[in-house]
């Protein structure tokens, strides 16, 4: 069964992929393989299932959650599978003639693929023995039917209908999912037939049941969801015949049939389903009487018949269930026939309007006869299957002497009268009467091929045979109904003697005929049924779209700072929600801390406030630096010397880099219009601050498990070969993590370099990339070469010259000792970087370049290689990647030396960090302040005395310093 | 968690958030910096007990938790790289575009304008609604 269902989807995929390249008949022929094979397989299973066998198969999907594809072939499943595969085969064969050469091949391939996928989904649905399997195939039918309804995707009506069907049944599917989850949870099993174990009075179970029923009723187009089904008639006729009469719309009925024997005794079950089904039956019937389009008439008729089926299965009496099973088959046969005939008429004459079609029986006698049989079966005339099953249905309801059985009986009788009337309207509208001369009469202009007529003929033969062979058929159908309800024995008989139901049938047909004739003679316009959810659907659909646009317009307004605000607001909301749920701040959480810590914290907080208050960039940057140094002090107090060291070094470097860039920018901020008033922004910021502070206090006391630190500390010496736990974590325990982080550093450095270089290229290539200087802020534009760093201080220069090698040595020492004392590759690399920063500041960029070409990319690359290499080395030594290896060497004179492979790794980090600092320094320092080529040329021309650079640059001295402003240029002050 | 540290974390977060909600690129970068400090402090102080430096054999007493320290150490260095990158962006914006501001996302802006309900639209809608009411 698994293979059978899966192969449908496989074949569908093939059809979707290559179908458009196959010849037309080949596409349909290939598609036919699936239902034919499935039908054959089902046929072979008939004898054993009739003997009581129930073969099953199961494929575990998510083992831990007990989700599986689980199929079981009981009597009912086999019957439904036969209907699905049998009618699928016939309709597919029919479609070979239906789709003429005017249909693009790509669309035909889409039809064939969608059809096969749908057939597979439906097969999976009827065979499903597990709620999740059922749900998956349920949704699969929704999606494949979306593809098929919207087959004519160049027509807006088809797209709208497909969307409507998808949304309505999809929403129902969601309800079903929720309901099945609740019921499966309550029942403690996912087996479909054991859900009854959940049957108790708990509210949650009732809710689950309601949700499941909502899913079933939307799928089977019951009031008030019935509107999607006539809408779906935008699909080509084969789709309508297969999906919207014979199979998919039965899914809800099938589910109700599976559940009713288990849940029918729930107090509201019968009243609800009889009311909904009864209303649907009447509403569908009345609506069918209003239609002029034969196909829409049939669609409303289908709605009506589905109502009847819901009543029969919904009441949950064994006899009614048995009658329902039989009626399900009868309906599939006659309704498919009628759809296909209407399709043939449409195909031949080009219209489906019964006001134009009258009197077609002379031109299409065989079709008229076939349609007459199917219509008669729908009405319930002997000796056809429709008669036999309707008798059984009436009988079943007559014999139950309960209130709801009586109500159901009355409803069924009323609905059947309407059925008779619209059936007559259909047949006489299309085939009966005389062709009208007044309007443009339709005539047959297309021949109809045997691939279209043969399936109709076969269906008709089955309808007649089913009626004539009612007795034996009933016995076999009994196996199917008994698999739903053990007590549901099927009694079908062509002649069951003189019963009340026989009189009812006679009365129904008579009254129906009278109703039809009365309506034909009158000019009454039947109003549309008010019991439709279509208006509500359309309104909510429109409302959703309009609402979504408005919300999008407000939220996605393009202002990035506003987006940041939204993100932060959500953060606050999250913290607030946690706080409201009662996060604990234990008394241990609020300790005063050391006085020094409090003082430094206060200082840092003051500077943070000053930082946001100032409008001068340099002041703000100095505040940022000060906060950073304060952080270092706090880290030191906290017991984190490594952090303090790194923080001081980073803060110093950041400060320099900031100043390198800010010297190009004006002193004060511009004041662009902001997206929100300052008060709101401040409020959000304060809320974030309060929220995070609260979070910090709560989180500090929230630890429930023993810290991993204890274990790590214990292992540091034997495994890592070092004493500095932080460093050992970085280079050994979490070495791969560190490798990732230094890679990020390398990428960031490459980003900086490329941003600057690309901008430089633009500056050099373009004569005046900015266009009109009036458009830009004062002072903006390419660097003039005036604003530079490096007031020549002889003392500073000499000191730097002397200290440079010493600092480099110190940096190496710090890097190497890091394994056992505060330090390490990060700190060492930063110190070395600062040595170069000093050189840069003392000599300026030209000197830096001249003295020592800086192989920054080489350093970065070498660092990465060294780091990876040390990891590979330990791998080669038999340990894991980056797992430190400790070697003890006897060196003459020195004694025993302990070598740890992690030291190599740390040296890699050192080289890389140094390279990153140098790269940033070179690009943001030297490259960024070099004036563009055209600018220099301008300056050299004697004809342009007003050119701003000139003298200083040609002198080769970069004399302007941080404290030497350029009046009117907005330079740093 | 000591109260002064929690308060400082709050102030740093507030200042960082406030700065990042601006249009001026320099302020945003400063915001990144100060918020980064807040995050580092948050991790170090909530994730660990304060104590002696986690260096075996150096000092007696209870160690400070080394794990958050290791996390934050790389965080500090990456914060440096991030700020350098943002500064390169700011420099580029300034030299090429002549400003130091984050501009609106143009495609978002267009979307918002397309669906924004202008005042005339709203008035028209209200009028037709009133008309419908009157007809009933």
Give me a quick take on this structure.
Chain A has 973 residues and is mostly helical. Helix content of chain A is 69%, strand content 3%. Chain A is built from 35 helices and 4 strands.
Question: In words, what does this structure look like?
Answer:
The complex is a heterodimer of chains A (973) and B (136). Chain A has helices spanning 2-18, 24-50, 75-98, 105-127, 131-149, 156-187, 203-219, 228-231, 237-246, 250-263, 269-290, 294-315, 318-349, 354-357, 365-379, 385-399, 403-430, 450-468, 470-484, 500-521, 534-555, 560-580, 595-613, 617-638, 641-662, 678-700, 709-720, 725-733, 735-765, 794-817, 825-851, 856-876, 901-929, 933-940, 951-955, and strands spanning 56-62, 67-72, 886-891, 895-900. By secondary structure, chain A is an all-alpha fold. A two-stranded antiparallel ribbon of chain A has the order 1-2. Chain A has a two-stranded antiparallel ribbon with strand order 3-4. In chain A, strand 3 (886-891) and strand 4 (895-900) form a beta hairpin. In chain A, helix 10 (250-263) packs parallel to helix 12 and helix 13 (318-349) runs antiparallel to helix 15 (365-379). Chain B has five helices and no strands. The longest helix of chain B has 32 residues, at 66-97. The radius of gyration of chain B is 25 Å and the shape is elongated.
